[in-house]
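Deliverable D5.2: sample structural annotation.
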Amino acid sequence: MNSEYAMIINTCPNEETAKKIANLLLEKKLAACIQCFPINSIYSWKGEICNDNEIILFIKCRQSRYAAIEETIIANHPYEVPEIIMLPVIGGFTRYLGWIDEVSGDE
């Protein structure tokens, strides 16, 4: 079991915001891979039920990069309270995890 790695989930209001955040995280070498998918989110916000189309990001990274990833997302995200959730990776293909280290490891 290895908990040095994580997947961070972030939702964005549109593809433009999602691509901007994804590119920044990759340029800063904070993440190794980011997958973007269109989704429909139904949620409660300020006493109302909302139903919005969004883009969800699955950000593959090292857990040690979380603070910098959070900071980058917050600085470039239009939401008042963006979803930023880190899920620990407790196992995975050793060569894939090694690739994460190679492209986004701690300096």
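Annotation notes: The CA atoms of residues 29 and 104 lie 5 Å apart. The first helix runs from residue 15 to 27.
The annotation will be released with the project's public dataset once the embargo ends.
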